[in-house]
Amino acid sequence: MTSSSPLLVTGATGFVGAAVVRQLLAAGHRVRVLIRKDSDRRNLEDVEVDVVIGDLTDAASLRRAVSGCRGLFHLAADYRLWVRNADAMFAANVEGTRTLMRAALDAGVERIVYTSSVATLGIRPGGPADEETPVTFADMIGVYKQSKFLAEMEVQRMAAAEELPVVIVNPSTPIGPRDVKPTPTGRLIVEAAAGRMPAYVETGLNVVHVEDVAAGHVLAFDRGVVGERYILGGEDMSLSTILTEIAALVRRRPPKVKLRHGTVLPLAYAAEAWCRLVGGVPFVTVDGVRMSKKQMFFSSRKAQAQLGYRARPAREALRDAVNYFRGRGLCA
Q1: Domain coordinates of the chain in residue numbers?
Q2: Cα angle, residue 47 at apex, residues 100 and 62 outer, rounded to 5°
Q3: Per-residue pLDDT reduced to its tens digit, 143-175
Q4: pTM of the entire structure?
Q5: Which range scores top for mean pLDDT: 94-98, 142-146, 272-276, 291-295?
Q6: Which of 125, 201, 281, 285 is the most exposed place for a label (fewest CB within 10 A)?
């Protein structure tokens, strides 16, 4: 294939996927995107890309999408912390990934970047985890983490057994502009910036600007070692620090009430039960409360050393996220 052959991006209408599309176009690449017929295309309104309609459960559409492509960025995934139907998430995240990787192999795609998540990695008490921190399937809390763990295992298996030319990236907690849904983290920022979060449950997150994550994807495509994985993270922060930073940006007082996990868990069960009855998405979920017991801190040293990856201060990512949501009228 020639250098003018397109690069396929799945999940291109999403938060991170759209940022990757923009990075690739800025670098002069021709980009093809796979999107669902009913996808929200706001993130692609001002970019020029080739469009293929399909989804991860439609094998024929995946074959059409990868045909003639020299590279693939697979970012599409069902990312929800609460689902009514777990089977649908496994079908998209695990089976869909396997089918797409098979289609890419058959089409002779030369280079693949698979977007996993730090959700698949181990947690190191007392310090940041890295790509080698031990982890098992039993450590995965909730359907999303379980599905991404199994999908990454399948990608690694295909890289070892079938010479799949794939580099794996594990983004941490991306925030910033164009979070149109918004994501669960984006929802938290909106609620905090709008002054609708009087209390919180302490946890720890690794916060990174979405544009730095996108740049890391391009670096992985250009410089990553096939079969290796790279954490694309930023700055480790407690939730209380994140909320304090957001409060300063919007000139509000940060929440002072810190709730115990055991206090919130019954509320999460009740919220999920209510949403099952009447619809909607619970703001607090059982899996979210269980995950918050762990400090999800991570090191990007490997990506820095091998890819030249860099991340800006987390406060800049929070500022850009708040400004974006403010521009959409979601917070003051």
Answers
A1: 7-180+207-234+299-312
A2: 15
A3: 999 999 999 999 999 999 999 999 999 999 999
A4: 0.94
A5: 94-98
A6: 125
In this structure, what token pair is assigned to residue 261? Answer: 């996990």
Mean pLDDT for 100-107 is 98
- List, as one string, the DSSP characters of 249-287: HHT-PPP-EEE-HHHHHHHHHHHHHHHHHH-S--SS-HH
Query: 56: burial class by Cβ within 10 Å (0-12, 13-18, 19+)?
Result: buried
Q: Which two tokens stand for residue 306?
A: 């091998």
In the β-sheet with 50-53, what is the strand arrangement from edge to edge? 50-53, 31-35, 7-10, 71-74, 111-115, 166-171, 229-232
The secondary element (H helix, E strand) that includes residue 245 is: helix 239-250
117: Cβ–Cβ under 8 A, 6 or more apart, which residues?
A: 145, 148, 170, 171
Whole-angstrom distance, CA of residue 185 vs CA of residue 248? 18
Contacts made by residues 260-268, CB under 8 angstroms, sequence distance 24+: 260/201, 261/201, 261/289, 261/292, 261/293, 264/201, 264/289, 265/289, 265/290
As a residue count, the chain comes to 332
216-252 confidence digits (pLDDT tens): 999 999 999 999 999 999 999 999 999 999 999 999 9
Protein fold of 7-180+207-234+299-312: Rossmann fold (3.40.50)
Structure token digits, residue 68: 């003639």
Q: Tell me the two tokens of residue 172.
A: 């941490």
pLDDT (mean) for 91-115:
97
